[in-house]
Write a structure and sequence with these properties.
The protein is α/β, with parallel strands linked by helices. It has 16 helices and 17 strands. Helix 8 packs across helix 13 and helix 10 packs across helix 14. Bound molecules: adenosine-5'-diphosphate and 6-O-phosphono-alpha-D-glucopyranose. It comes from Stackebrandtia endophytica.
């Protein structure tokens, strides 16, 4: 890496903010926004810092050369077909993803997946070492790259290294199942600051450093095996509130919202769900609750319709294929039982959309359902709230989403309790306008003060100016399911 391209601020994430789309027969690449909350959150941050983003460009085989996009330098890392299967689909998304989400699906462990995880983490660390200027800040993201902090520190001890986990960090009894648990902990401890979505997650991590490595965490600081202080704390992530509001306020979006509402037959109540098609999101439970409410007559078509956007995700992994089959069967069943000619009860959309189209959907949603069984944060819930410029609408929100700690005025629910889910859905549908406004105003105010810039500032301040350990009673670390 020549000095002219070395960057003083580097983000390392499994994915770049854009995916390369190669169409057979056409020359040249086209690029599409990558899925998921990590990209939504980090894109405006990195753009403002004009830094370098290291990540995979999607697909398999050689990576494109580094290039510039929206003022950011993008440095693509290649994954070959085996790595895609073993590092990405295997250890990242069939071991860590389910394990860290309360094992809502059974995590699988295979030794060759681990080898690939190590190998790809080493590649990301080497790329970061090559891209970072002397004394740069390097911010490593998420569960796919937990070994990078320690690997990078060995290569470049001059750097300040941060790590942020976008998903939950599990309670100790689940983490203990991981065959390579010590390597993961030591990998994370290579950072100067390890950030989590919730205080409970940070506590789980600190407690594990004591249980597994015999370290002595004090308050938010633990001294790593090499004697460095490592800060572990919660920094709940958020959205670019002003930009979401601006999109929702545009004429294009307002017109599209009118069109969409008319296309849906102008029902009294539109219930919306927007999720990656992932088994953590509670889509099946939500559909089941809706079906039972149609069945017992508490809700009826065409007065009420549901729109479920299920963004394609990790489509080769068996748990995801099985989920798709179940969800599509359930949608078919509901429409068969309760739809009318030209008026389905559930509009099911298995596609990616522009931010404008999603904003138009948020604008027409009288009730937004965000009911994950477990979720690190959930930015869709925050985007919905920020889009409700008239302060009306009702958000039904799972207690098990990190967002529940921030959006306290939502209609909160335990999605595992089907009866509760049904009654909260009905309460949200029937909620009077003044109640909706009271709740929504408070949540919108919160999101204006706690946007993604606030999140980044909090983390980066800690990374730039670490504090030393303060007096602390280590027995006070509570174990929490995050
Ligand atoms: P996760 O990170 O698990 O996917 P989040 O709710 O935190 O969940 O973030 C999802 C992000 O992806 C949001 O910014 C949302 O707007 C975006 N998104 C979700 N579905 C779609 C879709 N079908 N097309 C485009 N963007 C989507
Ligand atoms: C979540 C994860 C991200 C991931 C995104 C999309 O938001 O926290 O790390 O990028 O889902 O998943 P994918 O596997 O498509 O990158």
């Amino acid at each position: 890496m020549s000095d002219s391209t070395a960057s003083s601020f580097v983000v390392v994430a499994n994915r770049l903010p854009v995916d390369r789309i190669t169409t057979p027969g056409s020359d040249g690449d086209t690029w599409r926004r990558s899925p998921g909350g990590l990209v939504t959150a980090l894109h405006p941050v990195l753009q403002a810092e004009a830094g370098t983003w290291i990540g995979w460009a999607g697909g398999e085989g050689p990576a494109p050369s580094p290039f510039t996009l929206d003022g950011m330098r993008l440095s693509p890392v290649p994954l070959d077909a085996d790595e895609l299967r073993n590092y990405y689909e295997g250890f990242s998304n069939a071991t860590l993803w389910p394990l860290y989400h309360d094992a809502v699906e059974q995590p699988a462990f295979h030794r060759h997946w681990w080898k690939s995880y190590e190998q790809v983490n080493a590649r990301f660390a080497e790329r970061a070492a090559a891209e970072a200027a002397p004394n740069a800040l390097v911010w490593v993201q998420d569960y796919q790259l937990q070994l990078v902090p320690a690997m990078l520190r060995r290569l470049r001890p001059d750097l300040r290294i941060g790590f942020f986990l976008h998903i939950p960090f599990p309670p100790t009894e689940l983490f203990m199942q991981l065959p390579r648990r010590l390597d993961i902990l030591r990998g994370l401890l290579g950072a100067d600051v390890v950030g989590f979505q919730s205080p409970g997650a940070a506590q789980n991590f600190l407690r594990l450093t004591r249980q597994l490595l015999g370290l002595k965490p004090r308050a938010h600081i633990v001294e790593a095996e090499d004697g460095r202080p490592v800060r572990a704390e919660s920094y709940p992530i958020s959205i670019d509130t002003a930009s979401v509001e601006q999109i929702a306020a545009s004429d294009v979006v307002a017109n599209r919202a009118k069109e969409l509402r008319a296309e849906l037959g102008d029902p009294k109540t539109i219930i919306l769900g927007v999720d990656r098609l992932d088994y953590t999101k509670g889509i099946e439970q939500r559909l089941k609750a809706f079906r039972e409410l149609l069945s017992n007559g508490e809700l009826s078509v065409p007065d009420t319709v549901m729109v479920q956007v299920a963004t394609p995700s990790r489509e080769r992994i068996e748990h995801y294929r099985a989920l798709r089959r179940t969800v599509e069967r359930e949608v078919g069943r509901i429409n068969g039982d309760f739809g009318r000619v030209g008026i389905p009860a559930v509009h099911y959309l298995h596609q990616s959309y522009s931010r404008e189209e999603l904003a138009a959907l948020y604008l027409i949603a009288d009730v937004m359902t965000v009911t994950p069984l477990r979720d690190g944060m959930n930015l869709v819930a925050k985007e919905y709230v920020a889009s409700r410029l008239n302060n009306d609408g009702a958000l039904v929100l799972s207690e098990f989403a990190g967002a529940a700690a921030d959006l306290k005025q939502a209609f909160q629910v335990n999605p595992h309790d089907l009866d509760a889910l049904k009654s909260v859905l009905v309460a949200a549908v029937r909620s009077p306008l003044d109640e909706q406004r009271r709740r929504m105003r408070a949540m919108r105010r919160y999101l204006r003060g706690h946007d993604v810039k606030h999140w980044a500032r909090g983390f980066l301040t800690a990374l730039g100016a670490p504090e030393t350990a303060t007096a602390y009673d280590s027995d006070n670390i509570r174990e929490t399911s995050t």
